[in-house]
Design a protein that fits this description.
The chain is mostly helical. It is built from 2 helices and no strands. The radius of gyration is 41 Å and the shape is rod-shaped.
Length: 105
């Protein structure tokens, strides 16, 4: 017999066929589980890429469509607030004039 066949024969006699078959089944199951995990990671990666692309498109849409409207609304509110501040300052000045003209007892 050749030397590598003698070593194999000794290992088979030491461990026995059931043990070697059990190890073979364990290796095959681990391999299948690893392949399933790799496939699942690939599917999750594809899903993540689709989600990121969708979010980027939505952000671009918001940036181009809605931010201009928001800026316009903010400008109108600021102008309205400036008018309200001016009116309140005029009321304050008028109240000061009335207080100065009111005789004190």
């Amino acid at each position: 017999m050749q030397p590598h066949l003698e070593i194999a024969d000794q290992v088979i006699r030491m461990l026995g066929w059931p043990t070697l078959l059990g190890v073979l089944v364990w290796v095959v199951r681990k391999w299948d589980a690893g392949q399933r995990d790799l496939k699942a990671m690939g599917d999750n990666t594809k899903l993540a890429v689709v989600t990121v692309t969708s979010v980027q498109a939505e952000v671009e849409q918001i940036k181009t469509n809605h931010l201009a409207h928001l800026q316009e609304g903010i400008t109108l509110v600021a102008a309205s607030n400036d008018k309200a501040v001016t009116l309140l300052q005029n009321i304050d000045a008028s109240i000061k004039i009335l207080i100065d003209r009111t005789p004190r007892v």
